[in-house]
Amino acid sequence: MLYEDKIDKNRIPTHVAIIMDGNGRWAQARGLERSEGHVAGVKTVWKIVEDAVSLGIRYITLYTFSTENWKRPEKEIKLLMDLILQNMKEEILMKNNVRLRIIGDMDRLPYIVSNRLKKSLENTKNNTRSDVVIALSYSSRWEITKAMKNIANDVMKGLVSPGEIDENLIASRLETNFMPDPDLIIRTSGEMRLSNYLMWQAAYSELYFTDILWPDFNREELCRAIYNYQQRERRYGLTSSQITDGALQKSEQ
After folding, report:
1. In the predicted model, is pLDDT for residue 253 greater than 50?
2. Phi and psi torsions of 133, nearest 5°
3. Residue 243 has what pLDDT?
4. 21 part of the active site
5. What 3 state SS string does 98-146 have?
6. Is 82 a known active-site residue?
7. Which residue is catalytic, options 69, 123, 150, 196?
8. Which of these, 217, 231, 245, 250, lies nearest to 45 by C-alpha position?
């Protein structure tokens, strides 16, 4: 039986974030250049976007390029930027009524890339079915540092008092302030770490790690991850009995 047949379509996670890892190893295992792995990975991106939308996932966030990735060889960075520029499949977003969002330091991107992305942001802004969020030139430490600087500036201007700084205020200054925290974070390729990705937002996310390399990740693997997620009990610091009692109270109302 396929995992898609096993999942509860009424309990699809609202927000799924993916660390797309393994392009280089996928290529090397086939005797190809690393660049071929990135090309294959881009094709997987758009397949998974359509699969996620069709399954009813409201937000899908894809870790595309981290602030640390700027340290990679210049040739590889150029290739990745070119792939982003050449493979912004706006027609897929429009066909599926999907809005594009970007989180990250867009000021560091080449002008031609940022300009192309800004056009897609504008062209898809009225789409309402799902949001595809591209984490580009992004890292959690960069994001949190930026938020702290913004809050500090407002404190200095008298717009915010130190006593007003709480979790909600900090969350409102993060790049992700327009969407809920991830219910499920998937990482491909067998690595088991967050790699500076959505660390504030992942406080109570369910984590799912798979040995599948990103270019081989497909709809069935996405459904497998969702099925695994649905078998878990999300307690948010409570006990199992508290969760059960709360569910019973709601059913009796």
Report:
1. no
2. -110, 120
3. 67
4. yes
5. EEEEEECCHHHCCHHHHHHHHHHHHHCCCCCCEEEEEEEEECHHHHHHH
6. no
7. 69
8. 217
